[in-house]
Amino acid sequence: MAIDLYALPVTQVSGVKGKKPEELLALGITSVGQLLDYYPFRYEDYTLRDLTQVKDGDKITVQGTIAGVPQVQMYGRTKSRMTCKIVVDSLFITAVWFNRHFLRDKLTAGAEIVLTGKWDQKRLHLTISETEFPGQGKSQTGTLQPVYSITGALTQKWMRQTMKQALLQFGELIPEVLPAELLTRYDLLPRKKAMALLHAPGSLEQGQQARRRMVYEELFLFQLKMQAYRALNHDRADGVAHPVDLPAVRAFVRALPFTLTASQKQVLAEILHDLQQPHCMNRLLQGDVGAGKTVVAASALFAVVKSGYQGALMVPTEILAEQHKRSLDRLFEPYGIQTALLTGSLTDRQRRDLLASLQMGLIDVVVGTHALIQEDVYFRQLGLVVTDEQHRFGVNQRSILRRKGMNPDVLTMTATPIPRTLAITAFGDMDVSTLRELPKGRKPIQTYAVTPAMLERVLGFIRREVSAGRQAYVICPLIEESEKLDVQNAIDVHAQLQFAFPEYRVGLLHGRMTASEKDEIMRQFSSNEVQVLVSTTVIEVGVDVPNSTLMVVYDADRFGLSQLHQLRGRVGRGEHQSYCILIADPKNEVGKERMKAMTDTNDGFEIARRDLELRGPGDFFGTKQSGLPEFRVADMVTDFETMEQARDDAAELVRRPDFWTGASYASLRQFLQRENIFTGDLLD
Ligand code: ADP
Ligand code: MG
C-alpha cells in the first residue's frame, strides 16, 4: 500500500522545525504532499549570457574579470554605492552594488567574478543582485533556481533547500495518476520525474517539459470530472429525440437566397444530429460577426417545428428581437410557420393573447428578450431554445423550464468566441460548434484610428460615403455607468451632425427611447430613409443593414476590444467596401494597444485573444464571480489548446466501458469519488 504523502505532516521533512511549520501553514501547507505541490511560479536563470545577445533591462548573469579598483561612496552609516570596472567578453562594463561595500576586499583586479543583475545597455552598467567568485563555495551559476510565492519570514533560499530535501526523502513515493497510454501518447514525463524537475530544473527546456506534464495532468483531472459528470447525465435520456425531417430541412436550405458555407453546413449537421438524440442538446455556436449564425439557427428552428415542436429565440435587446422576427418571417413565410414577438413593450392584453396562443401551440416560433423564459410563459411543447449573443442560457433558466415540465434542446450563439469558449471548455458542459469562415466575397473592413483633431476629415469621409449612396453609423462618446450622460452625448452629436449634413437625414437611437420609437428609427435606417444613424451602444449586437459601409466610433479608446469588434461588425455586410474609423485619445496607452489590435486584424478570434491579453484573464472573468476554476500550473489562456485536448481525452476515456471497471483506472475512479461526482447534484 502506497504511503499517502498528504497524510504525512510536513515536519517529517528534515529542517522543517521551529517556526517553520507555522510559516508554511500560512501558505496552506501542512503535509509533505502539499509542500511538493507548492510549485514555483517562475525560475531565476543563472545561465551565463553573452552581452551581445541581451537586451536593455534584462536580468542577466555574466562572467568576467575584475579590471579596476572598487570605488565606494557611503551614504550615512550603512548605505553605500560601490562601482567597479569589469571586462566581460572584451567589453568594459561597470558593475554597481548598493549597500554591499563589505565585498570591497574581495574585488581584486585580475580575479574572475560571476555577476547577476539588471543590464543597462546605454551606460553599460550592471546593477548587481548576486555576486559569485568561481571556485569559492557553492555555485548556482549556470542553473535555474525556482522562485516561490512566499510570505513572512520564509526566504527563497530556505524554500529551495527544503524542497530539495523533501524530494530527497519522499520523491520516490510520488504516485503516478495519469494512465500509461496518455503518458505515451503525449510523451509526458512520469509524475515523479516531473515534480523533481519542476522544483529543480537543469535547464529551461526541462522545466518546460515538467510544466507541460503538470499542466496536462491538472487539466485532464479537471476535465475528467466534468466529462464523467456529463456522461452520467447523458444517460438520462430525458430530452426530446426529434424525428427530424431531413429532406424538408434540405429543401429549406436549398430555398435560401444563398448557398451555405461549408462551415454552416457542418455546424447545421452537428445540430441536426443532436436534435435527434434523446438527451438534451447543450451546444455553443461560435462564429465571428457576419459569419451567418442566424440562418443556421433558423434552419434548426425549422427542423424542430417540422417535427411538431415549438422554438424560442432569445436575444438581448428589443431591436434585435424585432430584426430577428423580420428575418425569420421572411424565411418561414412560405412554410406557414407562425412566429410571434414577445417583448416588454406589449400591452397586457397583447401579452395575454400571445401567451395563450403559445400555450395552445398556435405559435411555432417566438422571438423575444429574456422575458421569454419568465415564470408565466408556458409552451405547448417547447423543443428548442436558441439564445443569440452575450447571454449564456443559465442554470436558472433551465431549471425554470424543467419545473414547467420542459427540457428543450439549447443552442447558444456567440460572436466573442475565445473568452466564451474558455469559459465553456472550463465548465465542460457544452459542445462547441464553430463557423470558421465568412460567406464568400466579403471585403475586409478597412479600419483607421484617428485623433479627435481629425474630426473634420472624418465628417468629410461620412459625406463621401453617404453621397455615394451608402449609410453610416456614428457611435457616441461613452461615459461609463451613466446612461443618462451617454444619452446626452448622443443628443449633442446628433445635433452637430444634423448641422453638418443638412442635405441628409440623420437619425438618433438611444436607450431612453421607447421600443416603438427605436423600431421606427431602425426601420427608417434599414430602408435608407435615414442615412446617418447616431447611436449609443444599444446598436452594438447583431444589427444587420448591409447598405451601411461606415462605422465611426467616438471615444473608441474607452470601449473594450470585443465591443469595438462587434461595432465594426455592423458594416462590411454587403457587397461594398466598408470602413471603420475609431476616434481615440492618443494619450490613452491601453486605448492605443486596442486601436493597434483593431487596425491590425479583422479576425474576431484574434481580437478576442488580444482582448484577453490586454485585460488579463483575471480581469476578464472577474475570477471570483465567474466561478471559473483557478489552476495551480495551468493558465486558462495560454494553455487553452491543452485544455481542449484534455477535454477530448477525458471524454473519450469515460465513454469506454473499461474505464468504469478496469483495474488500471481505479485511482482515477477514486479521484472522481473524492470529488463527489457520483453523488452530486445534476449538472444544472
Ligand atoms: P452573424 O453570424 O453575425 O449573426 P448573420 O447571421 O447576421 O451573421 O449574417 C450576416 C449576413 O450574411 C446576413 O445578411 C446573412 O443573410 C448573410 N449570410 C449568411 N450566410 C450566408 C452565406 N452562406 N452566403 C452569403 N450570405 C450569407
Ligand atoms: Mg447575429
List keywords for this structure.
single chain, 684 residues, alpha/beta, OB fold (Dihydrolipoamide Acetyltransferase, E2P), Rossmann fold, 7-stranded parallel sheet, 6-stranded parallel sheet, 21 strands, binds adenosine-5'-diphosphate
Could you explain how this protein is built, in words?
The structure is a single chain. This protein is of the alpha/beta class and 684 residues long. Among the domains are: 47-142, Nucleic acid-binding proteins (OB fold (Dihydrolipoamide Acetyltransferase, E2P), Beta Barrel); 246-276 and 292-414, 3-Layer(aba) Sandwich (Rossmann fold); 446-601, Rossmann fold, CATH 3.40.50. It has 24 helices and 21 strands. It starts with 19 loop residues before the first helix and ends in a 10-residue tail after the last helix. The strands form 4 sheets. A 7-stranded parallel β-sheet has the order 11-12-10-13-14-9-15, sandwiched between helices. Strands 16-21-20-17-19-18 form a 6-stranded parallel β-sheet, sandwiched between helices. Strands 2-4-5-7-6 form a 5-stranded mixed β-barrel. α6 (204-234) packs across α22 and α7 packs antiparallel against α9 (293-306). The longest helix has 31 residues, at 204-234. It is globular. Residues 617-628 and 679-684 have low confidence and may be disordered. Adenosine-5'-diphosphate (ADP) is lined by residues 258, 260-261, 264, 287, 289-295, 415, 439, 542, 544, 546, 573. The site of adenosine-5'-diphosphate has 18 residues, from α9. Keywords: ATP-binding, DNA damage, DNA recombination, DNA repair, DNA-binding, Helicase, Hydrolase, Isomerase, Nucleotide-binding.
